[in-house]
Amino acid sequence: MPAQAPGSAAEPDGLEDRLQRFATIWSRAVFPVTATSLTRPEIERHLLPLARDLSDALHARPFDPAPAHRVGAALVAAHCTDPDALSRTLGVVDSYLVLYCGGDGESAALEELRARCARLQHALAAGFAQALRERTLVEQEAIARSALVARSFAEQALHATEARFRAVFEGATIGIGIADLEGNILEVNGALTRMFGGLEHHVRGRRVSEWVHPEDAPHVWKLYGELVRGERDDFRVEKPFYRGDGTVLWTNLTVSLLRDSDGRPQYQLALMEDTTERRLLNLRLRYEATHDSLTGLPNRTLFFERLDKVLSSGDGTRFGLCYLDLDGFKAINDSLGHAAGDRLLVEVADRLQSVATRPGEMVARLGGDEFVALTTGTDTEQQADELAHRILGALATPIRLDGRELTVRGSVGIVEGPAGERGPAEVLRSADITMYRAKAAGGNRFERADPEADARAITRHGLTTALPAALDRGEFFIEYQPLVHLGDGSVHGAEALVRWCHPQHGVLGPDRFIPLAEHTGLIVPLGRWVLQEAVRQARFWNRSHADGGPLRINVNLSPTQLHHPNLVADTVDVLERSGLDPGALCLEVTESALIGADEDLLKPLRQLAEMGVDIALDDFGTGYSNLANLRRLPVSVLKLDRSFTQSMQRHPIDPVDLKIVEGIVSLAHSLELAVTVEGVETGAQAEQLRELGCDTAQGWYYARPGAPDRIHSLVLADAV
Ligand code: C2E
Ligand code: CA
Ligand code: CA
């Protein structure tokens, strides 16, 4: 096959066309709001490479939104600085980027492209805002420079030629005004008049002191006083003014003192730049960055800012936080569709907002169907409870949606306490955990945080999330505990017991993590690993000393593994790969996992038993199963629970206990089941159990679980 020349025809057909069309649409959208002398087609040519950057970023592997950031900056550089230019651009990207540049992928791929497109829009907006900020700084410096130039011009003009001064004054694009030291405005240029609405009498002849504005920075008028008294030569502030029609003009204002030829203060010179639009854009960007676009509620960012502020305030401030998660929202969303789900969330947001209106209360949406309400004050313990009541009450009335009434319930976790002890992340995590407790208790209720429950949940949660990586990193290992013939004390085999060498918590026993692995399903790969490893180890023992019959290996199976469709295939595979005789493997299944088991569940075990694998009923005697049932189970070994062994330790031994064990053993033997006892800690127990007819035993009396070579040496000792 001829190799394709690099770069040639690598572009899919039509992408170039579609990019072109995308750039056309984009240019049409932004052209009306750009303040440049470029024509629309010129802008289009300018946007085409930017469109290509966005398209490339949409498909790049790995995904990186940085090019969109640069596109945002490029817009500013191209003088598309109007607030609308950004929102129109975002609109075009949102509607057309995936459509024109997405290719014809499958719906799963499209879903991903849409998610990427949203992230590109965020990056673009961020790039735009940053570039605008930087440009503003540069412009401010330019103004400061021109202030110096203008001042020297003005000073010269006052002493020299009026005509030259006029030229500078009128030609300037920034607003310039001159006032005397009493604050009477003597001269203003055209640019300044236009900023104030175009009528000269709105400015000239007025007094500077009339320009007090409620949003003036506190130090503005102090600086002004110092200037007119000759104590400083200039100052620069951001200052709002009322225009004649009552609207507000925001400016970057530089005021300088003009001195006469003897250095005495004479006039003041004001230079101002109109920043109203930029300010509006910044406010809008800030609003968009801090509010949820669906419900209009404050979003996570703003909520964290508020919470952070509350938590870092001193003087006995307390906070109360209610973390709300709707019960069963996913089901509504899945059955009625996302549009209906969205409307439901909007309604919930409205209701929450209407019940959290007391001073110091705030509601925010954290995302999805999760909301928070915050309250501050001194008696937040009671306030938070009340707030939670109001929240649940707000949800009590069904919500009408498309003609049907939906009952929406929620679970609330409350965290309350003094400011200054915990950070926002910690508080929110505690609220989240508490909310889950409310959910686990059935939902439609609130629970209060409890530090002990938190700590337990955090460790449990931490261990659960660390499990998968732990398996990949090889943090698990197996200890082996010998199984011994009660008759002659010789080693008959070993049980594999898994441990986790956790990087922070040290060695953890299976009781700490098997239930978690069971819960998350990780038990399947973990159990497979244990089986593989233990079988490999048994094969190794048996290869190195074949005399005295094969050593048997016992491996525990959890209920989830028992239900897994690949159990038989995986086990066969492991045995075949290692070359271990199936008769040397014993799988231990707890009695409780088999209570009430139907034929479907027993079938894989039956298949394994037919292949020669032993099945042991572990912890026997704790599950209260019907002894008559034993007959239909494919088991060949009973492992008597440790509690029986413990009863052999008492003095005198309860004759009833003896009778029970004796009965079980004789029933087992009549069913041709071998009996193993667990937890043998003393010689007396061993002797008693031997007399009762038990076949094999396991326990600290013989050996604690340990490294595989320990079994090796025990077997060698037997052989001697
Ligand atoms: P189990 O199958 O009943 O295992 C016997 C437990 O008794 C082991 O605890 C063992 O260390 C302990 N033991 C042995 N001899 C004595 C003794 O003389 N006195 C006392 N007091 N205890 C003794 P371990 O290792 O903590 O295992 C606990 C449970 O974890 C096991 O109970 C088993 O159900 C489960 N497990 C262990 N490894 C695995 C595995 O690989 N997969 C699965 N699914 N479960 C496992
Ligand atoms: Ca076991
Ligand atoms: Ca057991």
Summarize the structure in words.
It is built from 25 helices and 21 strands. It has 720 residues and is of the alpha/beta class. The protein has 4 domains: 15-133; 172-280, PAS domain (Beta-Lactamase, 2-Layer Sandwich), CATH 3.30.450.20; 294-449, Alpha-Beta Plaits (2-Layer Sandwich); 466-717, Alpha-Beta Barrel (TIM Barrel). The protein has an 8-stranded mixed barrel with strand order 13-14-16-17-18-19-20-21, surrounded by 5 helices. A 5-stranded antiparallel sheet has the order 2-1-5-4-3, sandwiched between helices. It has a 5-stranded mixed sheet with strand order 7-8-6-11-12, sandwiched between helices. Strand 4 and strand 5 (265-274) form a beta hairpin. Helix 2 packs antiparallel against helix 3. Residues 1-11 have low confidence and may be disordered. It binds ligand C2E and calcium ion (2 copies). One calcium ion binds at residues 495, 556, 588, 618. Residues 460-719 form the EAL domain.
Quick rundown:
The chain has 25 helices and 21 strands. 51% of the residues lie in helices and 19% in strands. The chain is elongated.
